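Why predict the complex rather than its parts? Because the way molecules touch one another can change local conformation, and only a joint prediction can capture that. The input here totals 228 residues.
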Amino acid sequence: EIVLTQSPATLSLSLGQRATLSCRASQSVSSYLAWYQQKPGQAPRLLISNVSNRATGIPARFSGSGSGTDFTLTISSLEAEDFAVYYCQQRSDWPWTFGQGTKVEIK
Amino acid sequence: QITLKESGPTLVKPTQTLTLTCTFSGFSLSTSGVGVGWVRQPPGKALEWLALIYWDNDKRYSPSLQSRLTITKGTSKNQVVLTMTNMDPVDAATYYCAHGRRGDGYYFDYWGQGTLVTVSS
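Output of the joint prediction:
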């Protein structure tokens, strides 16, 4: 099973700051990596598929990069609605797996 | 407009079987390239991928739970059913069903609201 390790566990930032979230895979997942956002009491929302493809309706301030085992989700300038938990997910190999999440909180 | 909604018991006893139904609209699971999956999330914890059924009835399961899980298309064309046997308190979680399609790599682009399942005697 491919293990996804996200860091940091918590990111404390202010409005307007840049957020950089990391996801590291225990083995290569090629480009088969997605990012989801989850707010309290809500279902996850797909942000980015296949490393860097923004899902429909996702603002351009969200971007993804990386390949192989190291991936990054960047939020260029944090807005109030961006404070949430973010998960990465791989679909390179069964079972598909999620990371343990990074919480972006207001500093 | 694609929507999904989970339904089933909110409380099950240890050793019982959990049956959850995902009722969806806005797409057909008979259409090539469509899949419906299940993901769960224990309170305060991370997401866990459980199972996926494709339009052609191909199925995938989490190996750690495979012996306890069954995913099927429902008797209604707009339903998917997940059963989990031998429930334990550690299985308490919010269970989500979600839609995926080949064009997006079967990542889950639409999700149900989730249903919270408690396991207790």
